[in-house]
Design brief:
single chain; alpha/beta; seven-stranded mixed β-sheet; elongated; five-stranded mixed β-sheet; 666 residues
Length: 666
């Protein structure tokens, strides 16, 4: 007569399940043969039992390494009261009795274990995980761990074959730890036989099984329970799942065999998909590598093309420079420029060099006025004598006077010895006075006397000293306006401006910018032995910018960009205002209230420079197509040809070197 069920309430991680049992002995453990199945690696295969004797219950240990704990202490056998709970691994299990009216308890009767539903849930979870995993290495590990969990094995191995070679890809134990040297931990005979025949092998005790007991590996490894299942990949046996237990027999039955056969089918499909994806990724990496290589080759070809273009430009510049040298009487290689504006300057210098009259060099700051003064000195008859330079804006009046005229000992406090002035030091040579427009009026008077009389008297001295000096002055100010306003002596102005020469701003000779850039990069190469070039986009930005600081600003920009770049100056290496093309204070057509005469030019010259520049830009944009260039300029082809003839330009819009036509028509 049945005494009714009792309940075991299993709790883990806050979740509880209630199981009802009718029998008097309930086995608990990690083996699926147990009445209460607990899939936890901390639980032994058969861990303990709950025994019922009439109305009393007992908790009995089944030989586990870590016995269950009741009332906080491990027990081998102890009375278990209704309502009490004992700890087993990560589980807490409480004993209870069902209420009479409670018909919702999931009873577990003898011969009706819930393993089928557990197996189904576990199998569905594993199948879902295998379908979602795309990484081949992680997939193989999941397959082995799932195999060990589903059949309660001690160890699991996954062996795959490819091109006639078989290797152990994954070897794990029930604690999800790697098995070292796995090729020596399995029976190769069993694995190879399943691989060859595709027939699964199962033994509940290999030591007594006639099929395996004579195998050396079975004896050496002391194998008991062994289960080996083929894995079919696209219809062919591509590997095996191998699980064993060296300590217990009859661990695996037909139930575990059927489960692993189903799992192997899913595993084969998942392995094939992961391999295919891995191959696709490999092909994608190869394709990307090939594309990167193509980009590198294109970049190399582009670099070679730019180098060849640079060499061609260099040859053109050298030819142009040689042509300019042939036209000019003297060699002005230190002054970069072969455009119309600079050719006009060189033509004046050819005539000025052979005289001894004073020269007045005007132009914006940074246009190279001192270079002109040095060119006059180096080519004149005075080249063997001294070239002395002084900036009139850099010194206060008293100090500038003593520097120019010199002084004798005791002339003023601190004059412990006599000192020659710059005028005396430059005797027979050239004295260059920069920023002469900033010279004080009183000092202007004394300088005028030196020019008139050809002699100088040092400060504190009584005797005069004869001097033979050619004076070259420079200024960025309008001396004529200063004379009218009383800021500069008129008589001195006429003595200084005997031979005037005006240096155009860089914005009015943009055709010289590439040649200047090359000069500055050459200087940088000689300093640091690093060769640098400029990309076409960056060069276009450099040419388009107005350069209010002129050549000096361009030089500083190139030096800065050469430091920032890695061999090639790109547009991103340029200053922001250069990249954006913002007009500086020295812009050609800035509305500063000045007129052409204030800037040392005339309206026709300004119109000529503007039209020439725009014609050259149109030809560059139209790739030297005259009809297209005329459309860009809003002219007829005939009108454009008249402009080319008027300004002596060739079919590419570049100066031919011939004198311009005497034509004032538009």
């Amino acid at each position: 007569m049945s005494r009714g069920p009792f309940l075991l309430v299993v709790t883990r991680d806050g979740k509880s399940e209630t199981h009802a049992f009718h029998q008097d002995v309930v086995s608990i453990g990690r083996s699926r043969e147990c009445d209460l199945f607990l899939p936890d690696r901390l639980v032994s295969r058969i861990h303990c039992r709950v025994e019922r004797d009439d109305a009393s219950f007992a908790l009995v240990d089944a030989g586990a390494q870590n016995p269950a704990k009741l009332r906080g202490r491990p027990v081998l056998r102890a009375e278990l009261k209704v309502g009490e709970a004992f700890a087993l691994g990560n589980y807490e299990i409480a004993l209870g009795l069902p209420a009479v009216e409670n018909a919702s308890v999931d009873e577990t009767r003898p011969g009706d274990h819930p393993r089928g539903s557990h197996d189904l849930v576990a199998f569905l979870q594993i199948a879902r995980a295998l379908n979602e995993e795309q990484d081949l290495t992680r997939l193989l590990t999941q397959i082995v761990d799932a195999t060990i969990q589903m059949c309660g094995a001690e160890r699991g191995f996954l062996i795959l074959g490819q091109n006639g070679e078989h290797s152990v890809e994954v070897a794990r134990n029930f604690a999800q730890e790697e098995v070292l040297s796995p090729e020596f931990k399995i029976s190769r005979t069993i694995a190879n036989r399943v691989m060859a025949t595709g027939v699964p092998e199962l033994t509940t005790n290999a030591q007594e099984d006639d099929r395996f007991r004579d195998l050396q590996s079975v004896a050496d490894l002391r194998l008991r329970s062994v289960l080996c299942i083929p894995i079919r990949i696209q219809g062919e046996v591509g590997g095996v799942l191998y699980v064993d237990n060296r300590l217990q027999q009859q661990v695996f039955q037909e139930r575990e065999k059927a489960l692993l056969l189903s799992l192997a089918d899913h595993a084969g499909t998942a392995i094939h998909n992961a391999r295919t994806l891995e191959q696709l990724r490999g092909k994608q990496l190869e394709l990307q590598s090939a594309l990167d290589r193509v980009d590198q080759l294109n970049a190399a070809l582009k670099g070679q093309l730019q180098e060849k273009s640079s060499e061609l430009s260099q040859i053109r510049e050298e030819i142009s420079t040689q042509t300019l040298s042939n036209r000019s009487k003297y060699d002005y290689k230190q002054i970069v420029g072969n455009g119309r504006a600079m050719r006009n300057v060189f033509a004046l210098l050819d005539k000025y060099i052979e005289t001894d009259d004073p020269v007045l060099v005007t132009g914006d700051s940074g246009t190279g006025k001192e270079l002109v003064a040095r060119a006059i000195h180096s080519h004149s008859a005075r080249k063997q004598k001294a070239f002395v330079s002084e900036n009139c804006a850099a010194l206060p009046e008293a100090l500038l006077e003593s520097e120019l005229f010199g002084y004798v000992r005791g002339a003023f406090t601190g004059a412990t010895a006599s000192k020659k002035g710059l005028l005396e030091s430059a005797n027979g040579g050239v004295l260059f006075l920069d920023e002469v427009g900033d010279m004080p009026l009183e000092l202007q008077k004394k300088l005028l006397r030196v020019l008139q009389e050809g002699e100088v008297r040092p400060l504190g001295g009584r005797e005069t000293i004869k001097v033979d000096v050619r004076l070259i002055c420079a200024t960025n100010r309008n001396l004529e306006t200063m004379v009218r306003d009383g800021g500069f002596r008129e008589d001195l102005y006429y003595r200084l401006a005997v031979l005037p020469v005006h240096l155009p701003p860089l914005r009015d000779r943009r055709e010289d910018i590439p040649q200047l850039v090359k000069r500055f990069l050459g200087d940088a190469h000689r300093e640091n032995q690093t060769r640098t070039r400029v990309s076409p986009d960056a060069m276009e930005r450099l040419v388009q910018y107005d350069w209010p600081g002129n050549v000096r600003e361009l030089q500083n920009e190139i030096r800065r960009a050469a430091i920032l770049c890695d061999g090639v100056i790109l547009e991103s290496h340029l200053s922001q205002h250069v990249r954006e093309g913002r007009k500086g204070p020295g812009s050609s057509f800035a509305d500063d209230g000045s007129v052409p005469a204030d800037r040392g030019t005339t309206l026709p010259d300004m119109v000529r420079e503007l039209e020439t520049r725009e014609i050259q830009k149109a030809f560059d944009r139209a790739q030297s197509n005259k009809s297209r260039a005329a459309d860009l300029l809003g002219l007829s082809r005939f009108a454009l040809q008249r402009k080319l003839d008027k300004y002596a330009l060739d079919a590419n819009g570049r100066p031919t070197g011939a004198p311009p036509a005497n034509d004032d028509s538009p």
